[in-house]
Design brief:
The complex is a heterodimer of chains A (438) and B (468). In chain A, strand 7, helix 7 and strand 8 form a beta-alpha-beta unit. In chain A, helix 5 packs parallel to helix 6 and helix 6 crosses helix 7. The N and C termini of chain A lie far apart (69 Å). Chain A is built from 14 helices and twelve strands. Chain A has 438 residues and is α/β, with parallel strands linked by helices. In chain A, strands 10-9-8-7-6-5-12-11 form an eight-stranded parallel β-sheet. Chain A has a two-stranded parallel sheet with strand order 1-2. Chain B is of the alpha/beta class and 468 residues long. Helices cover 40% and strands 16% of the residues of chain B. Chain B has 17 helices and 17 strands. An eight-stranded parallel β-sheet of chain B has the order 10-9-8-7-6-3-12-11. In chain B, helix 4 crosses helix 5, helix 6 runs parallel beside helix 7 and helix 10 packs parallel to helix 11. At the A-B interface, helix 2, helix 10, helix 12, helix 13 and helix 14 of A face helix 3, strand 4, helix 7, helix 8 and helix 9 of B. Bound molecules: cobalamin (B12) and iron/sulfur cluster.
């Protein structure tokens, strides 16, 4: 059954629809396109039809080829006028480049902005910090051309309130300050160029020293005295003790806009949120690699505990390279994409416990426990690289703030994130002939 | 691919619901085509002549957005490209980034052989398999065709890894192709200056070719267009990898732009992308800084869309993170990460051999299993059904319990009292708190192993066999 359709009919048929392409339309049976009519053809539709016709041509060509018809020759003959093809014998060779302009659009679906959060307070705001640090505010994935990133990434370096066991490559840098958190904090800032420091009050853990909250708070005061950068205050991770410890710490740090780490679903997050609200701090909302748990906790902090949006940072958990980084990476990327696309419960800046990388055996073991493995090389080089790559991949996924440990890793991570951010100048390098120049 | 629902693919299938493809219905098969978990050729009926037009059409509709390019021949063939999405959670990324390490034609023969062997033999055990390097890139530093050919020959004699032949001089490339043309190497590179001669070579030897247009996407696309017009589809795009500063930022953006355009249907630029972190060695003189920066660049471009990359450092502190970040990004997020719960034999255990407990999370199981087997420890290793959760999280979350361990023993028909002489279970150090419960549930002796299974050999020396 042959059916004759005029282009003008087609235009009429489709005029009430927003047709961009004839996607999903299959043209069944024999058709004849009557091109003589001409008039009244919608240009967009004409383009679509052209596209569809080309598809049909390809299809017919394929069938013809199956039937043994020399399709290539037929096409080469009819197309040569257009593209300047020389001949049909053997592969075609062109004399001139066919110019083709590269074009790409911006991501349309990123319409929403990630919340900005400022940490630290200067004397102007009732604190004693020399400077503040603002994270968040993105309108695109990190370093994308769609929208410039308003703030660079920052690194906060760990300080513990008691000596802890750590990989040798890390320990060598802290041996002299291990017993003095204030000196440790100073070293992080002066020697290692830390943007912030994190004081982890781990000795408060009942299974360790069970240091009373009040005593722990003194360490916080010491650290605030010792350095003038914004700080993060961490508990021991003990869900029974942490609320009390963080409350006390929040109190002595009143007005400094610290980041309290952490509120989580497995402890009394409301107490921590309350302390933050009362003394003017931000809260780290920490969940374990689960996007829905992250939404739930953020929602509870906002709705139930009245934490203002500008006081929430998320830690969706960092698993080390080779130890679950695939989850951690994708979890962060999904969270950030959801935020950019308008999920208000996920549109917050993120923080990563990049130090977790040092849990990977590749960082601290002298050599592989497996005889079949190739030599792992010296761990002094391996370890920092592990921390860098763990942090860097999360930087690309959308992480803003990095909690880190090794001074070398910090330096390299800062270098690459600030390069991608766009604040590092360089002497231009000409790579045109790189092959012979390395 | 051009289809986005199973229904669209279904229309092209035979509709027999014969089940030959391994799933019960054509509709089910169609959904596997869409998520790319089955191949069209798994449906044998559609290969019949009468379906040929449909087959051809469907094949075209199913083709991934980014072209797939093959390099090399035989078992070691490397495939790159073939992606359909911008983010791995949307499907998965296919064909992991191919890592090519260099040799150059001013090296001594002996050094070449040694270096190639190191590249070829490097391996790292991870989750049940070895992570390995993929390719050798031969660089012409001398610009002498004879020297280049000799180097390529030496490399070919030493390894069957696929090659990238690198020179901007077509005469040098030709000399390399004369030696290695049969092995389907990737040639590097066609540029604004040499593209006609390089195109001739690619056509003559039917090999894949890289197009190099440093920070010039119009030129890159024009080259791609010109080459496709000449009948070449096996193209790789190198937009230039500038190693530092604003130039590096631009490089990063170029990668994003090319891939976004490619996935969003600009066929003209939908080819695999090459990164050259090796340029890090143009900015750093000392090998540690250079290798660090090179690995940093390699990581950036593994995460963001590099399909193949050329690298220089073969120090383990570079290779290990490069292999792992690639594995991280290319692990199929849909893949179950478990092993079947059971009692496994490691080596040839006897009744006196130790009995270890671990979880059925693949990462945990294979780590422990390889720690045991590579140290020659004959033993039983039980993978408890923790629903694919590692030790510490499973203890915290209640998937690793005494009851689960008991059930695991029953399901595996393993009777500790009869099958071992010691009636003893060794728990992971991180599951120490289950000790009492496990003793009660199983009536066995329970010992606590070290927190890290890498320490089991040392622990055995001290604690095994248990004193009666
Ligand atoms: C990835 C991860 C998850 C993933 C788990 C994915 C998975 N498939 O396992 C998810 C997101 C699901 C998760 C969830 C939770 N997690 Co979690 N998670 C982690 C993380 C980041 C890494 C764990 C890991 O994979 N390690 C690698 C594997 C290979 O280690 P492994 O299984 O322990 O095996 C090693 C050893 O145990 C030993 N070993 C293993 N078998 C054997 C056998 C013998 C005989 C011996 C001797 C040794 C041995 O050797 C192995 C190699 O080193 C850790 C933090 C960290 N950085 O370690 C937290 C961590 C384990 N999680 C934790 C918690 C609390 C949870 C949750 C309860 C959180 C919550 N409130 O919801 C849930 C529980 C969920 C559940 N069980 O259903 C805590 C556990 C704290 C504790 N000690 O109780 C940790 C330590 C984080 C923390 N610091 O709080 N988690
Ligand atoms: S083999 Fe082909 S025809 Fe048979 S059920 Fe599968 S898809 Fe349908």
């Amino acid at each position: 059954m042959a059916k004759k359709i005029k282009l003008s009919n087609l235009t009429d048929m489709f005029k009430d629809m927003d047709v961009e392409a004839l996607e999903g339309v299959t043209i069944e049976g024999d058709i004849e396109l009557d091109l003589s009519g001409g008039g009244g053809l919608d240009p967009a539709l004409a383009y679509s039809l052209g596209h569809e016709a080309a598809q049909i041509a390809v299809h017919i060509a394929n069938i013809s080829r199956l039937l043994g018809y020399p399709v290539e020759q037929a096409f080469a003959g009819s197309m040569s006028a257009v593209s300047g093809v020389e001949g049909v014998a053997g592969p075609t060779r062109l004399k001139e480049l066919i110019f083709s302009k590269f074009e790409v659009s911006n991501a349309e679906e990123w319409k929403h902005k990630i919340q900005e959060v400022t940490l630290g307070a200067t004397s102007a705001d009732g604190g004693t910090r020399k400077n503040t640090i603002t994270i968040g505010g993105e309108n695109a994935l990190p370093y994308y051309f769609d929208a410039p990133m308003p703030h660079r990434n920052y690194v906060t370096m760990d300080v513990f309130d008691m000596p802890i066991s750590m990989a040798k490559a890390v320990r060598t840098h802290y041996e002299d300050v291990m017993n003095d958190p204030a000196e440790w904090a100073k070293k992080n800032v002066r020697e290692f160029n830390a943007d912030m420091v994190t004081i982890h009050l781990i000795s408060t853990d009942p299974l360790l020293n069970d240091t009373p909250a009040k005593e722990a708070a003194k360490v916080v005061e010491d650290v605030l005295q010792a350095v003038d950068v914004p700080i993060v205050i961490g508990g021991s991770g003990n869900p029974e003790k942490d609320p009390e410890v963080l409350e006390k710490a929040a109190e002595v740090a009143e007005g400094e806009r610290v980041l309290l780490a952490s509120a989580s679903l497995n402890l009394d997050y409301a107490r921590i949120a309350e302390a933050a609200n009362k003394y003017g701090h931000a809260v780290l909302s920490w969940t374990q690699l689960e996007i829905n748990a992250q939404k739930e906790l953020n929602r509870k902090l906002m709705k139930q505990c009245n934490v203002p949006r500008e006081n929430i940072v998320m830690d969706p958990t960092t698993a080390a390279l080779g130890y679950g980084l695939d989850y951690a990476y994708t979890n962060m990327e999904r969270i950030r994409l959801a935020g950019l696309m308008g999920d208000e419960e996920l549109a917050f800046p993120m923080s990563s416990g990049t130090t977790n990388a040092w849990g990977a055996r590749e960082t601290w073991m002298v050599s592989s426990p497996l005889k079949q493995d190739s030599d792992w090389g010296p761990r002094e080089y391996r370890g920092p690289m592990w921390e860098i790559v763990t942090g860097l991949s999360l930087a690309l996924a959308g992480n803003d703030l990095f909690m880190m440990m090794h001074p070398g890793s910090v330096q390299v991570l800062k270098e690459i994130t600030q390069t991608l951010f766009g604040s590092i100048e360089n002497n231009p390098i000409d790579i045109t002939n790189w092959i012979g120049e390395v | 691919m051009k289809l986005n629902s199973p229904l669209q693919a279904y229309k092209y299938l035979p509709g027999d619901n014969c089940g030959k493809c391994g799933v019960p219905t054509c509709m089910a098969f169609a959904s596997h085509l869409i998520d790319r978990s089955l191949k069209l050729t798994d449906c044998t009926p559609i290969l019949e002549d009468k379906y040929k037009p449909k087959l051809i059409e469907l094949e075209e509709l199913l083709a991934p957005e980014i072209r797939e390019v093959e390099i090399g021949v035989g078992e070691r063939v490397v495939k790159i490209g073939g992606d359909d999405v911008l983010y791995r959670h949307k499907l998965t990324f296919f064909n992991q980034t191919a890592l090519a390490y260099d040799v150059w034609d001013t090296m001594d023969e002996m050094d070449i052989v040694e270096r190639v062997n190191r590249i070829k033999d490097f391996r790292k055990f991870y989750v049940g398999e070895f992570l390995k390097l993929d390719m050798i890139a031969v660089r012409s530093v001398s610009d002498d065709p004879g020297k280049f050919a000799d180097t390529v020959k030496k490399v070919l004699e030493t390894s069957d890894l696929p090659l990238v032949l690198c020179s901007f001089n077509p005469k040098v490339l030709k000399a390399g192709l004369e030696v290695a043309g049969e092995r389907n190497p990737l040639i590097y590179a066609a540029t604004r200056g040499n593209w006609q001669e390089v195109a001739d070579l690619a056509l003559e030897y039917k090999v894949p070719v890289t197009l190099f247009a440093p920070d010039d996407l119009d030129l890159l696309k024009s080259l791609a267009k010109t080459f496709t017009e000449m009948g070449m589809e096996n193209l790789v795009l190198d937009p230039g990898t500038f190693p530092s500063g604003k130039q590096l930022k631009t490089t990063f953006e170029n990668f994003l732009k090319i891939r976004r355009a490619g996935i969003e249907c600009d066929r003209g630029i939908a080819f695999p992308i090459m990164a050259v972190p090796l340029t890090a060695w143009m900015m750093h003189n000392d090998p540690v800084s250079a290798s660090y920066w090179e690995t940093v660049l390699a990581s950036v471009f593994t995460v963001r869309y590099g399909d193949i990359m050329l690298l220089h450092s073969i120090e383990p502190h570079s290779l290990l993170p490069e292999l792992h970040i690639r594995d991280t990004i290319y692990t199929d997020p849909r893949k179950p990460v478990t092993v079947d719960p059971d009692v496994y034999e490691v080596g040839s255990p006897t009744a006196d051999s130790p009995f270890f407990v671990t979880t059925n999370f693949a990462l945990t199981y294979y780590t422990v299993e390889s720690d045991l087997s590579s140290n020659g420890i004959d033993c039983y290793l039980m993978a408890v059904d923790t629903e694919g959760i590692g030790v510490e999280a499973a203890v915290a979350g209640g998937q690793l319990t005494a009851a689960k361990i008991k059930k695991g023993l029953e399901d595996a028909d393993f009777v500790l009292k009869e099958d071992t002489s010691h009636n003893t279970i060794i728990l992971p150090g991180l599951a120490a708190r289950l000790q009492g419960d496990v003793e009660d549930e199983t009536a066995a002796n329970v010992m606590i192993g070290p927190p890290d299974s890498g320490r089991i050999p040392g622990w055995m020396e001290e604690k095994w066999p248990p004193v009666k």
